[in-house]
Structure formats: structure tokens, C-alpha cells
Design goal:
The structure is a single chain. This protein is α+β, with helices and mostly antiparallel strands. It contains 13 helices and seven strands. Helix content is about 35%, strand content about 15%. α3 crosses α9.
């Protein structure tokens, strides 16, 4: 950023272990008609999770908490850290025979297509991305979708719910349609992103170097589950063949989805 003489990247990163994976949300994975389920999912989450969530007033806080705990939503997980993105490319050795990918999206360029009301909010705050506080005047996704006839996307930082959010340097994207994947929206804005392909033959080398840099499950998923996953992979032979029962077992990315 030349105006402040600092080196601040405008990119958000998302790592995926297979280049065939697309930028569809967990809500879209529910199948056709997923837009009909969106409101029901969040309403019931709020009903049953009230005792667990301290902030009850902000719709966006609720949405972030729901996404963080695995509820199917239209949000998608990203990170400010390219190293964290590489972790998700290389976290599951069972997929090391496939090329991976890191998506890099310029969120400043994405935000150039926001409705005027949201653009003004960012300018007034002097910010590049939103927070749940900056979005609190929008009280539902239906209201969010009605802000513009043209589809748009934005990035916002979730509240620091726990150490996992903080350590992963996380942020979320949201598109103004429950059925529009981010990569389809990007098709008409190809100057906003790049895809870095991670060849399969480099995955073990990258994985070992990330572990040496302390970018691993023990740090990104604090607790005994993350520790166990890290240790399991640390003592796995890179030459060990993938057995049929391995393919049936839940992978690390299934247990700790980057979606």
C-alpha cells in the first residue's frame, strides 16, 4: 500500500486438496432447492443454540457462529494467510496423489462492485473488509440480497469466537444469492483472482516445511483433536500405500472442513 508505505496484501486465500473441487458452499451441497432450507437451518440453529452463544442481537454474529460450527450456510471460509491455505491443500495425505490449488482473490477489487450503501460503510470506516458490526444494519440474508439487482460478493471478518478462528486468520465470503457459487461469479471478473496449482509431487515437501514453520493442526485446531490429527500425520510414512479402508475413513478435511 503506497499511501501508508507498508506492504499489505489485498488477497484472501483458500486452499483445496484437489483442483477439481469448486467454490460451492456447504449450503449448496445440500442439493437442488437449497435456498428453501437456508432460513429454516438458521432459525432452528438459533432456537437450540441460544445457551451457547453470548451475542444474541446480531444476525451476522449468529451466521458466523453457525458457519464456524458446521451448519450448512452460504458463507465460505478464507484466510488472510497463504501458509494457512497451503495447510488445507496438504492436510490429508490420502489426497496427495492429486494436484491441489490455492485460490487468491483480491477482496478490494471484489468490493468495487458492492452496492453504494455498503461501499459508503467501508469508506467511512476506512476499512478493506467488513466486520459483523459493520453489517449489523442488514438484519437478514433476504435484505442483503435485495440491496442490488446485480449479484455481488463481500468479505467479512468473523468475531474471535475461539482460538481456531484467530489462529487460522479467518475471514468469510458471502454472495448475494444462496445458489450462486463464488467461482461462477468470478467468471465475469477474471482480473480479481488467480489460481495457484500445487503439483501432487510437491505436497509432501510443502507439508513438511509447513510443519517446521508450525503451520499444522496442533496450532490451527487447538485442542486434543487437532493434536491427535497432527501426530497421526507426523508418524505416517510417505511411502505407505493407501488401503481401501483408508478411503472409507473420514479424512482430516472432512473432520475439519475448510469450507
Amino acid at each position: 500500500m503506497s499511501d501508508i508505505q507498508r506492504f499489505r496484501s489485498p488477497y484472501a486465500f483458500r486452499g483445496m486438496p484437489d483442483t477439481t473441487y469448486t467454490l460451492i458452499t456447504s449450503l449448496m451441497r445440500l442439493g437442488p432447492g437449497c435456498n428453501q432450507f437456508e432460513g429454516h437451518l438458521l432459525r432452528n440453529f438459533k432456537k437450540y443454540a441460544t445457551r451457547e452463544v453470548l451475542e444474541h442481537d446480531s444476525f451476522w454474529h449468529w451466521l458466523a457462529v453457525a458457519q464456524h460450527h458446521g451448519l450448512p450456510t452460504r458463507l465460505m471460509d478464507w484466510t488472510f494467510s497463504p501458509l494457512v491455505a497451503l495447510h488445507f491443500v496438504t492436510s490429508d495425505p490420502i489426497l496427495f496423489d492429486r494436484d491441489g490449488v490455492v485460490w487468491c482473490i483480491n477482496y478490494r477489487k471484489v468490493h468495487q462492485f458492492l452496492p453504494e450503501s455498503l461501499t459508503s460503510t467501508l469508506h467511512q470506516e476506512g476499512a478493506d473488509v467488513f466486520t459483523v458490526e459493520l453489517l449489523r444494519d442488514i438484519e437478514s440474508l433476504e435484505e442483503f440480497d435485495r440491496l442490488s439487482d446485480e449479484k455481488f460478493a463481500l468479505f467479512f471478518e468473523p468475531p474471535s469466537i475461539d482460538d481456531r478462528i484467530v489462529n487460522q486468520y479467518a475471514l468469510f465470503s458471502v454472495v448475494s444469492s444462496p445458489e450462486l457459487p463464488m467461482d461462477e461469479w468470478l467468471d465475469s471478473h477474471d482480473d480479481m483472482y488467480r489460481k495457484i496449482i500445487i503439483p501432487a509431487e510437491l505436497k509432501w515437501e510443502i507439508r513438511d516445511k509447513l510443519d517446521q514453520a508450525n503451520i499444522n493442526e496442533r496450532v490451527l485446531f487447538p485442542g486434543l483433536d487437532g493434536l491427535s490429527s497432527w501426530l497421526r500425520r507426523q508418524y505416517m510414512s510417505p511411502l505407505r500405500p493407501v488401503r481401501k479402508e483408508d478411503e472409507q475413513a473420514p479424512s482430516l478435511t472432512a473432520r475439519y472442513p475448510a469450507q
